[in-house]
Each structure stands twice: as C-alpha cells, then as structure tokens.
Design a protein that fits this description.
Elements lengths: L1 H5 L14 H39 L4 H13 L9 H6 L6 H8 L15
Amino acid sequence: MSQELLSILTQQDGPFSEYTENDIKILEKAAEECAQIFQRSSSCVEGRNAQLSLRHHGIHKLSDRSLKAQTIVHNYYRRNRDGTTPAERFFEAKHIDLFEWLLEKMDYPARPQHRLRKAA
C-alpha cells in the first residue's frame, strides 16, 4: 500500500510531475517526520488510556486529584523495557527523577503534638 501511494510522486502525468526530484525528496522527508511525530505522540496516550480503562473497572469514579496523580506517575515514573518513561520518549529528553523532585518540593510532615496525660 505504501509503495502504491508513493508511486503517485513519480508518475509522468501525475499531480507532482512538475516538481523537481529535490522537491519530491523534501516532501517525502516532511511526510516521514509527520508520521514519526504522530506515532510517538499517540503511542504514549494509547498506553495511558489502556491503564485508565483497567483501573476504571475496579474504582468506577476517580477523583480529579487521583486521576492527575496517576497520570503523572504513568508519564514520569513507569519505565519501559529500554528504561525510558513515556515523557522521555515523547519529549526526547531526560527528566529529573520524580521522587527526588517531590522530596525537594514537599515539606516534611510536622511532628504530632505531645499529648498531656490527665492527672489521676
């Protein structure tokens, strides 16, 4: 199917017959880049949607906070076999560790108040 569609580019009387060979190569390269962008962006989302579907069957109602937290864990913590996260594959760049970032940003919980014992 791919070869059949690409053959339109080289037909003598086709819609691209007035284009130079260099112009056709530029078009092919642009089309390939567009296909790669779509493939990368959609594969990350499809994996996330499948996870949500599985979790939804058991919980049925996810709060907005829970949904956001699960999305962050999925995108920045879960690793593929090659050791990359969905965010790394989508942005094509490493990011800092999620839990190290959380430790830097969050305050430690306060110590519980000391309870006074009632005199007997």
